[in-house]
Amino acid sequence: MTINTSDVIVIGGGTGGYSTALRAAALGLDVVLVERDKVGGTCLHRGCIPSKAMLHAAELVDGITEARERWGVRATVDSVDWPALVATRDDIVARNHKGVEAHLAHAGVRVVRGSARLTGTRTVRVEDVPGTEGAQGVPGVRTDAAPGARDDPAPRAHDLTAPRTRDLVARRAVVLATGSRPRTLPGPAPDGRRVVTSDDALFAPGLPASVLVLGGGAIGVEYASFHRSMGAEVTLVEAADRIVPLEDADVSRYLTRGLKKRGVDVRAGARLLDAELLENGVRARLRDARGEIRTVEAERLLVAVGRAPVTEGLGLEAAGLTTDERGFVVPADWSRLETAVPGIHVVGDLLPPPSPGLAHASFAEGLLVAETLAGLPSAPVDYAAVPRVTYSSPQTAAVGLGEAEARVRGHDVCVNTMPLTAVAKGMVHGQGGMVKVVAEAGGGRVLGVHLVGPHVSEMIAESQLIVGWDAEPADVARHVHAHPTLSEAVGEVFLTLAGRGLHQQ
Ligand SMILES: Cc1cc2nc3c(=O)[nH]c(=O)nc-3n(C[C@H](O)[C@H](O)[C@H](O)COP(=O)(O)OP(=O)(O)OC[C@H]3O[C@@H](n4cnc5c(N)ncnc54)[C@H](O)[C@@H]3O)c2cc1C
Ligand SMILES: NC(=O)c1ccc[n+]([C@@H]2O[C@H](COP(=O)([O-])OP(=O)(O)OC[C@H]3O[C@@H](n4cnc5c(N)ncnc54)[C@H](O)[C@@H]3O)[C@@H](O)[C@H]2O)c1
């Protein structure tokens, strides 16, 4: 075996890539993982984890307000120390990062630091990334997959700017896991201060007093919610006729109501016409749903209009691969996530829908590809049963089909909806919200469950089993929910659908 040969090369060490690598190594495959930045990728360093850490801080601030306004607790928020918040957030990220590195090292995955490009169907060239320690791997992680990394003579003086390259060969497969980056729009480019994407919002110098958020998907809603909790004036602009437009219409309605109640100016069906940079902010012209033009000034414009797959410089053509018109790498066989070129697989945000662009879906895709490569039977990812959560205040959580989508797909549906405040614990929380279940008419299987309200991110787990296991309302109604809990509302909705309604008429 030559030092630069392995069974599997994974390009990209985000959640999709590192999960593939971990599982493949656990199944006895010799794995090289190439990452040009930090293992953990978008989710750990710029996405899920830092944003949820910040949203936790936001919940604490909201809790103090609720304590004062509803519960007679004489407490106020003096101020938020942004550097202190950032320090805690970054400590959580750093500890998780160390954990991922340790898992990879323990599994025997050889991590190579550098930028990878395909040079054939089983060959990959890795180039040093300027400003890093080069293609020598991550401290504490075995790096002998980088051929010559230990033995290469030091570069001669005139070589110092030339990137070093390493050629790797995969005996069995190459897995593409290069993820995605924020989409931007024509107009003022992100400058990290006045115009930001979710990447640089994390590292902005402070908390703005006003924010214009463009895009009412998960990122836009979460950041709008965060900044509102931190006291900013927030305008949330969504081009579609409702925020979170891919969710059930009642989810959008309840979420809009909740955000508006908290003072967020939600403008769906609106368009950004242009934006101009000011000394300390932006001035934007919007056309709203009624066609009226309105000018908004804000300290910060946060652009959250979706993400684009990363394939630039990946050398797809050298392996005989292309992308679709949106830039995604499309599998020829979704049950193996294998492209039209045998032995090249793809996971994570590089995949088009129905892969949902979510970290937990990419974990499932990594497991599937690794098990496929190890020759184990592995069920295709059941995308219909992947939960979708927005960690705003209020939160949303859903799994399966919305009502309109179920009807479009030809299902004869029956629907039951209940406000969370109809159960005692919902009244205690006092934040509104709802449970909606979409099922096949006549007691058939549950097609979708949709939740809005406090803590619904933690409540969706039972519903993903209900949808994933094709349960019927009567199956669920047999099981008792604890009293008093918010989950009781889910139980009540199923009891009614099963013809055994207790509190719901
Ligand atoms: C603000 C935000 C919040 C989010 N919150 C959530 C959430 O709460 N829950 C959730 O499920 N999802 C969330 N997501 C989505 C989630 O982050 C992505 O779905 C997930 O990170 C995709 O993983 P991936 O491995 O496909 O790609 P990535 O995580 O993007 O990883 C790709 C990796 O490949 C590396 N790379 C790229 N090209 C090369 C190359 N040529 N050579 C070597 N390395 C390369 C990159 O450096 C990167 O580390 C969020 C995203 C954002 C932006
Ligand atoms: N909690 C979570 O699971 C979570 C959190 C953040 C991000 N993510 C994932 O990250 C990815 C990116 O998130 P995102 O919110 O940026 O993308 P998205 O595609 O989910 O939402 C973008 C929104 O911007 C709107 N839009 C597009 N152009 C616009 C314009 N010119 N003006 C106004 N609105 C416009 C779209 O209609 C859409 O609703 C998604 O896959 C998302 O699921 C997940």
Automatic annotation (TrEMBL):
The active site is at residue 483. Residues 130-159 are annotated as: Disordered. InterPro entries: Class-I_Pyr_Nuc-Dis_Oxidored, FAD/NAD-bd_sf, FAD/NAD-binding_dom, FAD/NAD-linked_Rdtase_dimer_sf, Pyr_nuc-diS_OxRdtase, Pyr_nucl-diS_OxRdtase_dimer, Pyr_OxRdtase_I_AS. Keywords: Disulfide bond, FAD, Flavoprotein, NAD, Nucleotide-binding, Oxidoreductase, Redox-active center. PROSITE patterns: PYRIDINE_REDOX_1. Its cofactor is FAD. GO terms for molecular function: dihydrolipoyl dehydrogenase (NADH) activity; flavin adenine dinucleotide binding. NAD(+) binds at residues 215-222, 238, 306. GO terms for biological process: 2-oxoglutarate metabolic process. Disulfide bonds join 43-48. Residues 386-492 form the Pyridine nucleotide-disulphide oxidoreductase dimerisation domain. Residues 7-366 form the FAD/NAD(P)-binding domain. Residues 149-159 have a biased composition (Basic and acidic residues). The keyword NAD applies. FAD binds at residues 52, 178-180, 349. Belongs to the class-I pyridine nucleotide-disulfide oxidoreductase family. This is Dihydrolipoyl dehydrogenase.
